[in-house]
Batch of 4 targets.
Target 1
Amino acid sequence: MKVLYINAVSGIRSTGRTYTEIADYLNNNGHEGYIAYSAGIPYSKGYKIGTRLDTILHGFFSRIFGLQAYFSKSATKKLIHYLSELKPDVIHLGNLHGNFINLEILLTYLAENDIPTVITLHDCWFYTGKCTHYTVDDCFKWQIACGTCPRLNKDNPSWFFDRTQEMLRDKKDWFARIPRLAVVGVSDWVTNEARHSFLSSAKIVTRIYNWIDLEMFKPVDGSVIRKELGITDKFVILGVASGWNNAKGLNKFIEVSGIIPPEMQIVLLGNISSNIKLPDNIIHIRETHNVSELVEYYSLADVYLHLSKEDTFGKTIAEALSCGTPAIVLNSTACPEIVGDECGIIINEYQTSAVLNAVLTIREKGKIFYSADAINRVKQKFNATSNIDEITTLYEQMINYVD
């Protein structure tokens, strides 16, 4: 079985690591896995789509004309040439909203050649006009027809035009033409959302959780980094994101920093604008693509705090749990689904006092009180071997699918 993955990045961040891991699994188990990507770490069986200049121009045109994934025609035609030579049995689509692909050219090729196609919902973009998320804005127009978009300046922003109605209509048309289409949600939450969209007409709509590499994400000694940061005797509250902004909860972390006791320290891992001044009790560490280093940060923390309200999975939550660190999350989208009942605390509504009380509860019980349940939950729900097996079984179903 030969599978090609198309994703914005390879080998970095959550989706890039996901597709590298599954391609490696295929290549190590008698199959062939390839990755086509726009940026990231080159893969041994990889194909780089377009150039940095092409991505910049695509992003600029997208903002000017209010259309996303309508440019990069030359780069996508070259990708199609690569596909025609590779002849994959299945094409698996990840995140395509990184200003690097022409969606119409790609999906038309998949439809005309009846290539079994799997899409994974790492966010909500595939079934909306342009939005990667929408719950904070309480907008569910995508169920019928987008337009007058409240998120026009969010996600991939449009400076002048609202083309969301057109983009939703086009996606519905292009995906409907693919004879063998499967939709995979990475949580029950996003899968159930997709069932209210035009994607409900796909041959298969199912949930397969994201997975965690248990060989990598496990408790390790974080004392060296604690010493380097000067927080040996502190109760450490950790937050992780590739890039921090208010949608990821940065403003909430700053608010919480104002009420925690002096023996506590917040550590935020991920990129933050240099224009933002952080309080002294927040240590900022730039984004790392070194997984071993990331595991050390998860392990040194006493609690993982996740204050984003919009997540289709929340892989950083599961990674923290896998390292034995309990998590505090908001009762929103898929976040409570990841933590469960025994691995941390779910806060119904964000208030600084509620966050502080949850942190104090975990400090009182101790990290070790939660660790075994946290690790066990990841082994049971987010195990790489069993979840990748589900994916490969799905590939075989789509290859053999007959109407």
Target 2
Amino acid sequence: MTGHRPRVADPLLNVARGLLMGAFDVVPGVSGGTVALIVGIYERLVTAIGHGSVTLLDLVRGRPRESWERLRRMDWALLLPLFAGIVLALLTGARLIPPLLEAYPVQSRALFAGLILASLAVPLRRVGQWTPGRAGAALAAAAVAFVLVGLPPAEVVDPPLVLVLGAAMIAITAMILPGVSGSFLLLALGMYTPTLAALDDRDLGYIAVFVLGAVLGLALVARLLTHLLTTHHDLTMAVLLGLMTGSLRALWPWQTEDRTLLPPGEHLAATVGLVLLGMVLVGSLVAAGRRREPLLSEPDQRGHPGPSARG
């Protein structure tokens, strides 16, 4: 079986995936990594980012030739259009999505809850065989995510650039993990509002420091994830499933501003309908991803990613 061969439509498809990832990353409680998992590019993306981190490391160590060779072999067919879509979505979403969440909080959370509920089938399908250890890891990850997304929001006014750097490293780590929202952690750190304001105002100094922190954070976490997906694939998928499940707490439609959960209340029928709509949308995305990227979205008989996904 041959590896993945790019098609003419792939760049446009990857831009669309990037738009979805970026849009999700703006929403507190929803992770862009979830979208990557849904559309079947998660392992491929993590592997590509991991190669990029090694490239940077070679350059820092004074090995320009090795760095250049790795740079040439990187999966640019995926990375360039994907990140173009992410950046475009972040710039537009920073202006459009927060007002929508503020005006329709119950309905918005219901829609996103449906998206995440349906997407749980993706990592569940990729766990080849459940064992007590994998089940325990999934439950522990769910508990951690449940606690994290229950943290009350904070607010930092005029943050120093050192804090911007650190917050970016933390947030980007979460953004690549399905279920753990980078936007939500920014909100808990008090950095969500100033970051969106910097994007909306085109504050190049703030944005440059944030991008630097994001690059450093990606370099650290991608290598670890690449190793885990290669050597402990089923356990890693079980943990990702737990993170996604626990993160659903943030998307319970009825809650107070400090994240206290409330019983079902207003707009009950519309809320249920939006949950179902979200599940249908994700089902369509999963089906499209499986048709277009069979080598990258289908696990083998042992539950491991296909050869091209492992890089």
Target 3
Amino acid sequence: MGFRIDKITLRRLRMPLVHFFETSFGRTYEREIILVEVSAEGLAGWGEVTCGEGPFYNEEWTGAAWLLLKDFAIPRVLGRELDGAGAVAPLLDPIRGHLMARGGLEAAVWDLEARRNGVPLWKQIGGGARREIPCGVSIGIQDSVDQLLGKIDHELKAGYQRIKMKIKPGWDVDVIAQVRRRFPEILLMADANSAYTLAEAPRLEALDEFNLMMIEQPLGHDEIIDHAELQARLKTPICLDECIRSAHHAEQALRMKAGRIINIKLGRVGGFAGARAVHDVAQRHGVPVWCGGMLEAGVGRAHNIALATLPNFILPGDVSASKRYWKRDIISPEVETTPHGTIAIRDEPGFGYEIDHTFLSTVTNAQESFA
């Protein structure tokens, strides 16, 4: 039986990070986050728009996402009779790009549908392959190698199963060599966020000696062909991130042998429908996937937990405890990890946590409702 969305509310949050997070394209001290609340039949579902504050990871940023939702995405969904959450993505498909904005709205409707059906979100999306998801951490570029080594040691003692370190030209081979000398046996990967070109392939080939799990998105954010050429030269698997925005991109990349692993980020592929489609393509090709992160607050983090219960998410993802990023999160209870580096999934309806409305109101600096 279908339902009709009768109200949609956008909130723009500002939340300072516990510690700065630096990638090849810059350093972040606080996050601006858009939450999407969709209402129907007295129930509310929640989604998070995961784009950054500037158009550097991809072309999206919070200011543009707000306008895109307000002027184009929300009018296509509000007041519509929906057969289910799966109907949202086709309604938004005529909008070119802006997948993170679209994905925040789409994910909110999935959460609403799960609550309406009285089931956890992971079950609503077809997940549930595991009761605990394996967790890794993503560690940004630091001010010194000693600082990086200290952070890695701290996260390993917290139980995390895999360490991802950000790299860029000048912070790569020598730094990874020092990490490997200190931690010779850990599961270690490097994430370049498109910081290199094919001309720098010899520098990336030098990473083969360090027994990395993968090198994530070393080349251009929209480049599949050059990744195929680079992968042929590397022993280390390439993990594709930014350049995989759809199941079609995944199919093309895997047919071309452009990578051996795919990172699925819910926002980057437009929500749960897109994420499941990429997951299924990779599974058919025998290629593992894992869940990437975008410095999400609690809503997006809970959605990632649900996503990571799909069967082909067999590698530790970037989903970690709330306290790694926030002094206080917007959900209750906050996301916590077990001593052995996992997060237990929850069985409450929807994404499994409560919104901390009191704290949410203190970090909200803009709000607009549509009915």
Target 4
Amino acid sequence: MLKPLDYLAIATSIFFLGTNFVAVKYGVSQFPPVFMVALRFTIVAAVLIWIAGPPGEKIKHIIGLSVTMGLIHFTLFFAGISGVDAAVAAIVFQLGVPFSVLLAWLLIGDRFGWRRSIGMVVAFAGVVILVGGPKSPSSLWHVFLVFASAAAWGLGAVQIKKMGPINVFKLGAWMAVFAVPQLYLATFLLESGQFEAVQNADWKGWVSVFYAAIGSSIIGYGLWYYLIRKYPVSRVLPFSLITPVVGVISAVLMLGETLDAHKILGGAITLAGVAFIQLRQSKTNKTGDVAA
């Protein structure tokens, strides 16, 4: 049974991870998306490197993960959310779970049965309904970028699973360190207006950057992995489904996004499919690496 303080840790983690979609959405309205990712990882590296310790023998795995997660996943997600409602992004992001199952099957031979197959079909069908509304303001190209970022997240989850046990702060710190030069190179090759953004961004823009780095990456995920290590995955994992709900509600309340029938129905179906996958997965996944 979870202790009262651990329920507080769950609530805090879910709050930061859920509202992070709003922070990112606001941030990319003032900073070029890849540049904002670079700033985010710069802050994460600067904070965590002092407590992380050396990367050790897993340095090759971390470098690979810095490409998959640090460069590809976050670049695609931040670029995608610039043209997608934060509420939609919060739901589409959940496809990282079925992608992780599919990629684990393709790359490392993990098996899954018909129940999780049904869950995957349901999750993807929900996203089709979600983005298919006649009044949806989201660009299909940007939805595809968020979709692709979820696939990259799934690949990163497989890499973490293959890596084996590692301290979450060490992983976060060194992944950020290795991702930072890649991201600054990418932003100066692909984007423009970085210096103007630094000069013109208001305090809300800078709060968004620090919120994504400190609130989400360090506090939100730090508390989540603390709970995953402390309790059986099956006891903690169901709470993760509250995160996109918080994301949708915060987008409606803080950004004024509309909540129509397509978002409600598509989101509910997607989360039902993801929940089915996670509940089946938690019976065999002892570490919680893939389902975080």
